[in-house]
Design goal:
The protein has helices at residues 2-13, 15-38, 46-53, 57-76, 80-86, 91-126, 134-162, 165-178, 195-202, 215-239. The chain is mainly α. Helix 4 (57-76) runs antiparallel to helix 6 (91-126) and helix 7 (134-162) packs across helix 8 (165-178). It is globular, with a radius of gyration of 19 Å.
């Protein structure tokens, strides 16, 4: 618990954390407000509203990068030695980092839901437009919240493996946004199990492949990626010298 509180404090006291989160929320709020408030009434169908609910592209990038920074920043700024002196076995520190980024990602998801939902459904009401069923709204927002938490964990795993800050950020972003069309070229249902497709399933859609996973299954697939990457990263952090 002590290590977990320390890792949360690190995230909360770094200016970059709040700048990136603030920019991400601001851009997403502008999109939700402008789209819902200005688009023609005839175009605000259920699919369009669900698209606004999942307009999370920039925040996804921000949280992925924040997960990377949670570990690579330690090596870049030389604080890893202090961190691992406080936890000489190292893997408890990595578990604390994972718990901290998951919690932070979930809190960012809550902030997104409050901002996005308040604007979207407030403007729908002001234009006398019906909202989708409450169950569907809750399901989509729950998927977004879980995806935000897991994206932070994904970034942490990549950062622990690559360690170089710039290289880890490029690797994490490339995995999600550059290699995402690759599953379309693969046979069978293999593409359903890629991280970006799992995020699409979590958000209630199938991105890039037909008949993708169910929402809960997508969450488990993304969680498996996170646990696998963090496990590999933890092994490397334990075995490598801090100064390598």
């Amino acid at each position: 618990m002590r290590l977990f509180r320390a890792e949360l404090l690190k995230l909360a006291t770094v200016r970059t954390t709040w700048v990136m989160l603030g920019i991400g929320l601001l851009v997403e709020a502008l999109f939700a407000g402008l789209y819902t408030g200005l688009v023609n009434v005839g175009e605000l169908d259920r699919e369009g509203i669900e698209g606004v609910q999942t307009s999370t592209g920039l925040l996804m990038v921000m949280l992925l990068v924040l997960g990377v920074l949670a570990i690579t920043g330690e090596f870049r700024h030389g604080t890893a030695s202090t961190t691992f002196l406080a936890s000489p076995r190292r893997h408890p520190a990595m578990l604390a980092k994972l718990a901290a980024v998951l919690v932070f990602g979930a809190l960012a998801g809550v902030a997104f839901v409050v901002v996005n939902g308040g604007l979207t459904f407030g403007l729908l009401g002001s234009r006398d437009l019906a909202a989708p069923p409450a169950g569907d709204v809750f399901s989509i927002y729950a998927g977004v919240l879980v995806s935000f938490a897991l994206l932070c964990g994904f970034g942490l795993g990549v950062g622990a493996i690559v360690r170089n800050q710039v290289g880890a950020i490029i690797a994490a972003l490339a995995f999600f946004f550059i290699l995402s069309p690759l599953p379309e070229l693969l046979p069978g249902n293999i593409g359903h199990y890629f991280p970006s497709q799992a995020v699409g399933s979590l958000h209630g859609s199938q991105t890039g492949v037909e008949e993708g996973l169910a929402q809960v299954a997508g969450g488990f697939v993304l969680a498996a990626w996170v646990l696998g990457l963090v496990a590999i990263g933890t092994v490397l952090v334990v075995k490598r010298d801090v100064s390598d």
